[in-house]
Amino acid sequence: MPLKPSKSIWHNGKLVPWEEATVHVLTHALHYGSSVFEGIRVYKGPDGPVALRLSDHVGRMFDSAKIYYLTIPYSVEELVAACKDVVLHNGLLGGAYIRPVAYRGYGEMGVAGNPDAPAECSIAAWEWGSYLGEDGLENGVDVCVSSWQRVAPNTLPTMAKAGGNYLSSILVTLEARRLGFAEGIALSSEGYVSEGAGENIFLVSDGMIYTPPAAASILAGLTRNMVMRLAQTIGLKIVEQNIPREMLYIADEVFLTGTAAEITPVRSIDRITVGSGVRGPVTESLQNRFFGLFDGSTPDEWGWLEPIGGEDTRRVDRTVAV
User: Fold this and answer.
1) N or C: which end of the chain has fewer CB within 10 A?
2) In the predicted structure, residue 316 carries a pLDDT above the cut 50
3) Cα gap 241→238, rounded to integer Å
4) Residues 90 and 169 in one domain
5) Same-domain status, 166 and 287
């Protein structure tokens, strides 16, 4: 999905023009994948733009950095403020996708790099539609079970949202698209359902919702967590358990969740129709509850929505001309 460039990117504490936010070709993360990042949605709310779980996302980036011994030279609060500034400065008041990233920069080229050197940090924001397509939100998408499995426990830490971890997702996605599917589903090293290349997965069977546990080599997504809480508000029971592959084929409904994908129904898996082949009532109900957060029809009981603010962006150092 092509990027629609915005005006500026926050780079190491300053706003710089989009095209000037560059790194050296010997940046450690470019060679070894030593980066951690987040994806955060901004929606247009009734009282102005709101970021969905902004502080939680930035907090998780710090957790990911801790796992990889990466020192971020800013506080959570500073990066949260910078994310808001990037949205405001680029005039993305109708909605945006924010991508903060921290990474080992130029300096040492050994595999470990220099764990004592502070990370480089950048934050970009741009307009971005639903990851699996706007049509998919209503009509569902066709997916396949990939031949590529997720990493085994104690190999790569799947709780960290790290750049290098996504090499697995690239293989899953490329295979799926080569075969004519919108997305691929990966199994765990034990052969159970794990997650999509960039999404968590849920299935509905006999009125109950099932999803793989954290131990199934998944990234325990914040949208996944939201769906589990929203399901409880409408009296639905969530079961976290190992899910055999064939359980997907006989489910009443299957849907994918993620910041980029939001809540996207699955209409077929491996060319096998899921349920009746259309978005099911449970998926639709959860979508309504989720998107209702942004027009006020769903009360934000959890403090998930963080206002972006007004026109004042003076918190950012503007010593670089933009």
Assistant:
1) N
2) no
3) 10
4) no
5) yes
Of residues 7, 44, 84, 161, which has the active-site annotation? 161
Q: Is residue 23 part of a domain?
A: yes
Say whether pLDDT at 321 is over 60: no
Per-residue confidence (pLDDT) for residue 1, from 0 to 100: 63
Domain shared by 39 and 178, yes or no: no
Q: What is the dihedral of CA 36, 37, 38, 39, to 10 degrees?
A: -150
Pair 112, 149 in one domain: no
Last residue of a domain, one of 86, 103, 128: 128
pTM of the model: 0.93
Domain range for 245 is 134-291
Encode pLDDT of 182-232 as tens digits: 999 999 999 999 999 999 999 999 999 999 999 999 999 999 999 999 999
Q: What CATH number has the domain bearing residue 158?
A: 3.20.10.10
